[in-house]
Specification:
UDP-n-acetylglucosamine1-carboxyvinyl-transferase, Chain; five-stranded mixed sheet; four-stranded mixed sheet; 14 helices; 29% helix; 25% strand; elongated; UDP-N-acetylglucosamine 1-carboxyvinyltransferase activity; cell division; EC 2.5.1.7
Length: 434
């Protein structure tokens, strides 16, 4: 969508938001649809830039993929073994489309995947696992060519790190391979459980998803199904941190608090009131926000790496020091320069962001450096006094659908200023919300 975000901060957030489906679940599910002989229907999918890029990849492979209202239907008959380079280079998740095409066609060509520049994100775990399953890998500059002349076969694979992407790639390869695959050291994230549930609904046999050891009995053909992806725990985390930073009372529904519990626990330690139910959480911040001390991200079930910049934005408003270290990506805090523009006292040392208290954040101009860092700058702007402008919002649009509307319905004074004199997408609170 693009355009700058114009935000007048200092307004508490109040209201209820139903959390949309998770981008980090939808993208691997769209890749998995390549394995299915019948129609796949994903329900209530958010309209995100990365979702549109995924549809380009599916259509480029010869499939029919289209929106039907808020749902997406895919009829998978892949005939082209080359992923559209422009779409593949746009996002990290394009690597997930390789294993299904390799399983169906025996060959796939792509470019090395793109995405946010938050640090090294190698695909060696993906490739070494596929090699153990019978694939041949060849890199020619930025091109990657995978072949499986004898088909994929089950293997006993141990991941050196519980990579979410590698776990998803190898599940997608194993579910249609010959024989059994045992994946040890697997990622345990809820999105892995969601992918396994989808594959099983389509006729696959995946056991142990959500634990460190996953077993897959290969099947030759999967059929289609209708499936509702899980709610987006990172969007929920974003809104929880926005409430903590700006103040107010926000209820988040449709997303189990258990999947982002570490973030809620830290916000509670910082002085927020937190009430949780099976599928909802209420965040209240009416008094002072306190520093969190030293905080670390980690693999699930620890604090999610994607939540690190969001939580850091809330920490900017605390009355004592905090530090947050991301153990996954070395450049997770590219948003630090933007924080400093708001008057925050921040310092990055290697993978750690150190935050000292300031009297008040001030409105400023800043540019989104990446997806979650851009959302963190929006949170800072909501807490700052005065008017702010956030540029390079295309990063934010990759992971947040209707972000302006979502925040405005909570009372935020926010609008999107489109380039070249286009009409603003204005969203201000209604009298009822005030």
């Amino acid at each position: 969508m693009g355009g700058d975000l114009i935000i007048t901060g200092g307004v508490p957030l109040n209201g209820t938001v139903r959390i949309p489906a998770a981008k980090n679940s939808v993208l691997p599910l769209l890749a998995a649809s390549l394995l299915c002989s019948g129609t796949v229907r994903l329900l209530a999918v958010p309209q995100l830039a990365d979702v549109d890029a995924s549809l380009v990849l599916l259509r480029g492979a010869g499939c029919t993929a289209r929106w039907q209202g808020s749902d997406i239907t895919v009829q998978s008959m892949p005939s082209v073994c080359r992923l559209v380079p422009e779409a593949a280079a746009q996002m990290r998740a394009s690597i997930l489309f390789c294993a299904p095409l390799l399983a169906r066609l025996g060959r796939v060509e792509t470019v090395l995947p793109g995405g946010c520049r938050i640090g090294a994100r190698p695909i060696d775990l993906h490739l070494s696992g596929l090699t153990q399953m019978g694939a041949h890998c060849c890199e020619e500059g930025t091109r990657l060519i995978l072949t499986a002349p004898a088909g994929l076969r089950g293997a006993d694979i141990t991941l050196g790190f519980p990579s979410v992407g590698a776990t998803e790639t190898l599940l997608l390869a194993a579910v249609c391979a010959q024989g059994e695959t045992v994946l040890r050291g697997a990622a345990r994230e809820p999105e892995i459980v969601d992918l396994a549930a989808f594959l099983n609904r389509c006729g696959g046999c995946v056991q142990g998803a959500g634990t460190g050891t996953v077993r897959v009995q290969g099947r030759r053909v999967l059929y289609g199904c209708s499936f509702a992806p899980m709610a987006d725990r990172i969007v929920a985390s974003t809104l929880a941190c926005a409430c903590a930073a700006a103040g107010g009372r926000v209820e988040l529904t449709g997303c189990a608090p258990a999947v982002y519990a570490p973030l809620l626990e830290i916000l509670a330690q910082m002085g927020c009131g937190i009430e949780t139910g099976p599928e909802s959480a209420v965040i209240v911040r009416s008094g002072a926000l306190h520093g969190a001390g030293r905080v670390f991200t980690g693999v699930y079930p620890a604090l999610a790496t994607d939540a690190a910049p969001l939580l850091a934005a809330a920490m900017l408003c605390a009355d004592s020091v905090s530090s947050i270290e991301d153990v996954v990506f070395e450049r997770r805090f590219a948003c630090a320069d933007g924080f400093a523009a708001f008057g925050a006292d921040v310092q990055v040392q290697q993978r750690t962001l150190h935050i000292r208290p300031v009297r008040q954040l001030q409105g400023a101009e800043a540019a989104a450096p990446d997806l979650r860092g851009g959302a963190a700058l929006v949170i800072a702007a909501l807490a700052a006094r005065g008017r702010s402008r956030i540029a390079d919002t295309g990063h934010i649009d990759r992971g947040y659908a209707c972000f302006v509307q979502m925040l405005a319905e909570l009372g935020a004074q926010i609008e999107r200023e489109m380039p070249c004199g286009s009409t603003c997408e204005k969203k201000t609170p209604s009298k009822k919300q005030i």
